[in-house]
Structures are given as C-alpha cells and as structure tokens.
Amino acid sequence: MHRLLKSAACLSVLVLASNCGGAAQHDVVEAESPIDLLSVLPPSPSLLIHLRPDEIMASPVLGPIAREFIGAEDLERIELRFGLRPDEVEELIFAEYQDEFIVIARATRPVRPIAEAIALRMNTIELESDEPLYRRGGFIGTQRRELVVVQSDVLAYGTMAPPMAGLAARAQRQLPSVQSSE
After folding, report:
1. Residue 40 vs residues 4, 9, 103, 126, 152: alpha-carbon distances, Å
2. Could you tell me which residues are beta bridge partners of residue 95?
3. Taking a C-beta distance cutoff of 8 angstroms, is the pair 171, 38 a contact?
4. What one-character-per-residue DSSP string does 41-105 give?
5. pTM (2 decimals)?
6. pLDDT digits (tens, 9 = 90+) for 28-40
C-alpha cells in the first residue's frame, strides 16, 4: 500500500507538471546532446515512474482528467516549494531503491538557480562540488538529501546515498564536455 500511495503521489506531481495552460513563457534550454535520463539511473530500482507531461496533456483521455484535478493554487504551491513551475518540466523520473529515492527532472530553463536555492535550505552541507558537476549534499531539516545539476536543464534530487553518487558518475561519463556555471 505504501508504494501504491507513493506512486499515486508521484503520478499526481507528474500530472501537475503537465498543466501548462496560461503559464508564463520561459526561454527553452537547448542542449547540444541531451542526456538520456534513464541511462544515468542506478540499475534495478524497486519502483520506476517515467512520464512526459507534455504527452499527458496532449492525450485526449488523460489531458482533461489532469486539468480537472489540478488548479492554479496547486501550481503555485508546487512552485513555491520546489522552485520550478510544474509546467516547466518536460520529463520527470522517480526511482526508488529500497529506502532511497532519486527524482530527475528535465526543465525548459536552466536548473542551476533552483539547485542553488535548494542548497541554501540545507542547514548542514556535507558534500560540495562545483566541477565537473554542481553537487550539494547535506541535511534539509533532519533529512539527508543530495542534488546534482546533470546538464544545464536537468536536475537530480534524492537521498544522499550511493545511488546519487552513481548517477553523477554515469552522467559525467556521458557528457561530451563539462557544463560550466550558468
């Protein structure tokens, strides 16, 4: 039941990410060669959810259902909490590994400012690296978290554990050149 609830919650967030009616326009980030988000995940997650919100909203079946459940207040609440408007998310992956998780989002704008804002919320920073990838790890309240800017438009966030370290290493191997600061 726990996984079902978590899956439903994650699906709800992904559907929220699809609700782009009337949203502010932002510059689209164009990466020379976008990284395949599934390929940087550690192997064998116990739960994997991968959605493309634009396809959900374009669906003649799912689009109207998503718009029925998601309101403007929901969109604002998510933006305030996560620093990214749900309608700025093109692709979102949630992967669970026993008691660990990773969320990877591909946005329509640079994510480094979002990562920096999340890092500012960390009361203790235990891992800090700006090169070759921007990475921060520490505590938000009593919860250990780590974040990695995988590409200028891709942010990974999750528990501070080997899965995040593996993700960063796989991303570095796939990138043709090191991303510079935005």
Report:
1. 25, 23, 12, 23, 15
2. 48, 102
3. no
4. SPS--SEEEEE-HHHHHH-TTHHHHHHHH--HHHHHHHHHHHSS-GGGEEEEEEEEETTEEEEEE
5. 0.73
6. 444 457 889 998 8
